Amino acid sequence: MKMTTTRWRLILITLAAIAWGAVPAGAQWVLEPPGAHQPVALKIPRVVPVPDGQWTDVQKQLVAKYAPNGHADNALKTLLNLPELVEAAMPYTNYLLNESSLSPRHRSLLVLRVAWLLGNQPLWATQAKAARDAGMSSSEIRRIAQGPEVSGWEPFEATLLRLADELFRNCSVTNSTWQSLSSRYDLNNLMDAVETVNHFIVLATIYNTLGVQPDADLKDRLPVDVAYRIAAAPREPAPTVARVEPNPGRGIAVSRTFAKYQKLNERWSPRQNFILRTSKLTSHQREMLILRMGWNCRSEYEWAKHVGSVGRAREQGLDPAKIAEGPDAAVWDPLDRALLHASDELYRDGIVSDATWRAMSEKLDIGLMMSAIFTTADYRAISLSLNTYGVQLDELGDERLPQIPAP
Predict the structure, then answer these.
(1) CB neighbour list of residue 246: distance below 8 Å, 6 or more residues apart
(2) Of 115, 272, 360, 381, which residue is 20 to 30 A from 257 by alpha carbon distance?
(3) Given 3-state DSSP classes, what are the helix, strand and coil percentages for the chain, each rounded to the nearest 5?
């Protein structure tokens, strides 16, 4: 008998709950994993790009700093609505596209696969051109959309595409994929590959939600005749020992892990500084968004630090169990509920729905809405990094993810 779409989704949710150690399977606290369908791009912007003739001196300086030949694309013009966000995102973006230890071809494979997974037109259009500049043919670019399981890929490049699929679907990487990449990549290569996928998931979800449109002079678009498939094995249990051993010394393990790679760490830090120091979100809003994403990604280290010594969730008026329960818990006011819905949608759907966007806009200005979207997307990337590198809890007293209560 043919199964309905609803029944298939229930099966996916149940399998995800079992695979991720949630009990009981099928409980309401568990979302279906990302990738049930390809996100569909908005046809018009939600946040209008700042026109060239209206740039402030600060915005002109940012364009001169980050845009080649002073030409800002639609993505950068959109981010100019919150100049501080440009300074947060662009150092890492430029590093991963132009300075990382990966070859241009391998960068293109990863970024284009992320663009396909998230249905992001501007990222696909921009990076398809870059891929051709790196010597990739049109047929190879199309094959990226088809995925790692089609014929034509040499095994290592298929593994790179699978890395993107596993991070997107499972928020982690299987031991097999990690070991396959380790056979050719050193530690810097490995971290650059993981961070390329994670950071461009951040950008793709932001671009999807803000409605960034592809630039008219770029002709490549996502292929419409390729079936949407994700090549990811079931999620494995979290590593019980670190894959990337933190530097010795004082400080929390995540900081000492990123410090293993100084150049990457320097470019990554502005992203975190914006969220923890520059953003105008309240501490309550910030920690709620971070913890909800940590819960959805089953990132126990992120959860522990933001319930505890880093975020001090309870001091911000947050009950961790209610965050895990999600936006339907009775304790939330309308704005908190909208922000939690936004976090869930960014994780599961790769875009914030119209209804949630409207609910947020009733209480927040554009700058705060952009900050909320960036915070949520960024901590998805952090969760993926923590899970993949096997960052272990710092202290015996660190608070683990809560168990889902029986119905």
Answers:
(1) 253, 256, 257, 259, 260, 391
(2) 115
(3) 60, 0, 40
Cα 226 to chain center, whole Å?
A: 23
Distance CA 224, CA 239 (A): 38
**Residue 79 lies in domain:** 52-210
Q: What secondary structure does DSSP assign to 177-207, as a single string?
A: HHHHHHTT--HHHHHHHHHHHHHHHHHHHHH
Rounded to whole angstroms, the Cα distance separating 96 from 402 reads 35
Instruction: Give the integer Cα–Cα distance in Å for 109 and 308.
Output: 38
CATH code of 292's domain? 1.20.1290.10
pLDDT in tens, the chain (407 residues): 344 444 444 444 444 444 444 433 334 588 999 999 999 989 999 999 999 999 999 999 999 999 978 889 999 999 999 999 999 999 999 999 999 999 999 999 999 999 999 999 999 999 999 999 989 999 999 999 999 999 999 999 999 999 999 999 999 999 999 999 999 999 999 999 999 999 999 999 999 999 999 999 999 999 999 999 999 999 999 999 999 999 999 999 999 999 999 999 999 999 999 999 999 999 999 999 999 999 999 999 999 999 999 999 999 999 999 999 999 999 999 999 999 999 999 999 999 999 999 999 999 999 999 999 999 999 999 999 999 999 999 877 789 999 887 66
DSSP sequence for 200-258? HHHHHHHHHHHTPPPPTT------SSS------PPPPPPPSS-SSPPPSSSS-HHHHHH
Residues 294 and 204 in one domain: no
Q: Per the structure, how many domains does the chain have?
A: 3
346 neighbors 336 (Cβ within 8 angstroms): no
- Write out the H or E segment, with its range, that includes residue 137: none
What is residue 164's three-state secondary structure?
helix
Residue 246 counted as domain residue: no
